[in-house]
Amino acid sequence: MLTTYNSTCIYCGAETTGAHFCPECKRIQPLASGTDYFAFLGLTKRLQIGEAALEKQFYALSRQFHPDYFMNASDEERQASLDRSAMLNAAYRTLRDPVQRAKYLLTLEGYKEAEKKAPPDLLEEVFELNMQIEELNAAKKMGDADEIAEARTSLDETLTNLNDKLTELDGKQAMLFSEWDAAIDADTLEEKQKTILDRLSELMSHRSYIRSLVREIKEEI
User: Fold this and answer.
1) For a tag site, which of 36, 39, 71, 85 has the least CB within 10 Å?
2) How far apart are CA 20 and CA 16, in angstroms?
3) For residue 14, what are the CA distances in angstroms to 23, 41, 184?
4) What is the full DSSP assignment across 146-200?
5) Is domain 1-96 annotated with CATH 1.10.287.110?
6) What is the DSSP string of 67-119?
């Protein structure tokens, strides 16, 4: 895990246990290197996060860290407010989005960015897609309006199918999120962690691949 904390206040020496502000002297603490987004927001590493609760925490911390409150503070405190504000924005952007949240958790758990791989059941469609794009480009070069329209219709159908695949993957992603959080609640994460993360990493790879195909089609049509 990457989570690390300052254990004592740098100003008065009181125990802080990673708090944003010292409980004794109330001064903002410098941001500890390696602090992860979940810990920063006071969250466990769950994959199902209520957007309303996350937004409430974001705005509450935004007010506490706002640089205007530290205009007359020390240089160290002003820098701490800037660092914590920047981290808060990055954490909120990442954790509010389910896909980015999953990718971030994979990174925390030591998984590298997965290579984009086509789902096995999509290989034939990928071959067909490449043919459709070649046919569209050939029709454009020839200026054949009918062929262009026909090729675009075929690509539209493929695009619809790919979007359906993404919806299917979103459903599988939600199931993995539930499995991960259930394992946390049942205190069985240690034994299930690798299996769930391996499946999640593969799913993210498939999702990235399909998203790239969708972008490619949209660029062509």
Assistant:
1) 71
2) 8
3) 8, 21, 32
4) HHHHHHHHHHHHHHHHHHHHHHHHHHHHHHHHHHHHHHHHTT-HHHHHHHHHHHH
5) yes
6) GGGGTTS-HHHHHHHHHHHHHHHHHHHHHTSHHHHHHHHHHHTTPPPPPP---
Spatial CA neighbour of 95 closest among 148, 150, 54: 54
- Per-residue pLDDT reduced to its tens digit, 171-217: 999 999 999 999 999 999 999 999 999 999 999 999 999 999 999 99
Q: pLDDT per residue over 147-156, tens digit each?
A: 889 888 989 9
CA 40 to chain centre: 16
